[in-house]
């Protein structure tokens, strides 16, 4: 201690050192707090970026799904239309034979039957109604010695019950001729 002024300065040195130490500690605490705040902010930024990326991926997946549905809608609609066409074609194919049969009746069978029936129509030549199994080709009952028709013994039976022909009609037996005539 050489001078009086330095004595006073020397008395303040420990106080200044303590103040510097406290200042250094406070600066270190402040730096640590700043670093922690910076790290927390970086973490929050990373979480926000991750949330944003996940949301973007979700939106992209929904968009891709909608685009795929839209792309598939055209072929699916076409397939449904083709199925309807096939079903209609099946219905037409099922009706085709009956239409062809009706056309054959109109164009071939009925015109072929007209000459056989002549101009008689559904009623017989005498104007009387014919039965369902009686046609113009049936043989009328024979007259003569048998006013009610020939006896059953003179009918031929074509393999059915006695006195009954092929379709349930009775046919007279052919007349027998004596050997000498």
Biggest β-sheet strands, sense, barrel? 2 strands, antiparallel
Compute the separation of the termini in Å. Answer: 193 Å
Average pLDDT for all residues: 75
* Shape estimate: rod-shaped
Low-confidence stretches: 124-128, 132-144, 153-160, 162-166
Q: Could you spell the SSE succession in H and E letters? A: HEE
By secondary-structure content and strand pairing, the structural class works out as mainly alpha
In helices, the fraction of residues equals 55-70%
Query: What Rg is obtained from the alpha carbons, in whole angstroms?
Result: 60 Å
- Strand percent estimate: under 5%
Largest beta sheet: strand ordering: 1-2
Structure annotation, total helices: 1
Number of β-strand runs: 2
């Amino acid at each position: 201690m050489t001078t009086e002024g330095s004595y006073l300065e020397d008395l303040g040195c420990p106080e200044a050192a303590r103040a510097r130490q406290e200042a250094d500690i406070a600066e270190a605490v402040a730096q640590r707090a700043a670093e922690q705040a910076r790290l927390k902010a970086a973490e929050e930024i990373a979480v926000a970026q991750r949330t944003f990326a996940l949301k973007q991926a979700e939106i992209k997946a929904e968009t891709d799904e909608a685009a795929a549905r839209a792309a598939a809608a055209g072929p699916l609609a076409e397939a449904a239309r083709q199925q309807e066409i096939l079903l209609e074609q099946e219905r037409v194919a099922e009706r085709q034979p009956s239409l062809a049969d009706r056309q054959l009746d109109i164009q071939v069978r009925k015109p072929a039957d007209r000459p056989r029936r002549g101009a008689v129509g559904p009623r017989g030549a005498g104007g009387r109604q014919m039965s369902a199994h009686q046609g113009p080709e049936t043989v009328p009952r024979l007259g003569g010695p048998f006013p009610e028709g020939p006896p059953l013994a003179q009918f031929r039976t074509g393999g059915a019950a006695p006195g009954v022909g092929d379709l349930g009609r009775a046919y007279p037996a052919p007349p027998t001729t004596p050997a000498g005539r």
